[in-house]
Write the structure tokens for this entry.
Amino acid sequence: MILLRYLNRELMNTMMAIIFILLIIVISNMFVRYLSIVSGGNIEANAIFKYISVMLPKYIAYLLPISFFFAILLVYGKLFSNNELTVTFACGTSWFRILKIILIPAVSLFVIECALTLFVLPKMDQSYFLVQKTTTKDSLVSFIQPGKIIPFNDGKQVVYTKSTDSDGTMHDIFIYQQQPNQGSVIVTAPTGFAETRPDDNQYFILQNGAYYKVKSGSAEVQKGTFKQAEQFISGKVTLGTNTSIDSVPTSKLLSSDNLQYKAEFQWRLSFPLAILVSMLIALVMSKMRPRQNRYSKIIPALLIFIIYFNFLSLSKSWIINGTIPAWVGLWWVHIVFAGIMLIVLKRYNGAIGFKGEKA
């Protein structure tokens, strides 16, 4: 019990320090990046902290496996280089006993990572979508996308444009607008462009177009043409739903036969599993000779960790492309790497079974 508390206290303190440092680096980079976007006039200044707050759970989820991995390497590397673990093994403690000790914080982190990647992150991705759409300056104009019907003011105003040139010129513009107690107006134009005035009001400048007015309760249509006209863009855009697969609820991924959905589910579950697999990799690579440099195994261990995640990413692409069946999926990567590390630990451990359980 004393050994368990000592090792896990050292491990968790080191892990918290690592993840804190990594988060400071990530948040600083995010702050600088969004600050440059604000200075360019693309988003509102008060949106920076909104972006950071909705992205923070995602970075915590991504950093947990690597932080735990490095914590094991550093703590157990230090214990080996100081001969503390050598003495512990001499007293009868086995490698599998050490593994059982590390499993206590590992299982706790596994549960936390499952909650983040399977449930929290999809909601955060939808929140990021809403923040991105509602904090962009000139957001009404920026919502207009070629080939899509964009509703404003709960559908009272609808805008469509077929294509847009690099200079902002729009082609084949269609605008529908309901006028209170007056009917509706349809405006079409072959070309036009969006313009934001100094008072922050936004307009379409339409050229060589036509309009059609229909009065309420009447079938009469008033027609007309113009060489140039201004159409005021008012209100707020009707926000759609985020179509990114990252925002799809995990329950929907599970019930779908779509290969992309299956690959996404396995990818989300790979991060919790990576905590357990990276624990085995780090424990195997932490073994050192007496007085060996405690940092000497970091680069080889990191290379194995990178290869492990590269195979996961590659397998995800294989599922989507149909190269491998979904039931093989990403599971084989976890099984292969975990199996190899357990075999190495068994060789370290010597005899079969758990030695020194009373230590």
User: Anything to note?
Assistant: Confidence is low (pLDDT under 50) at residues 351-359.
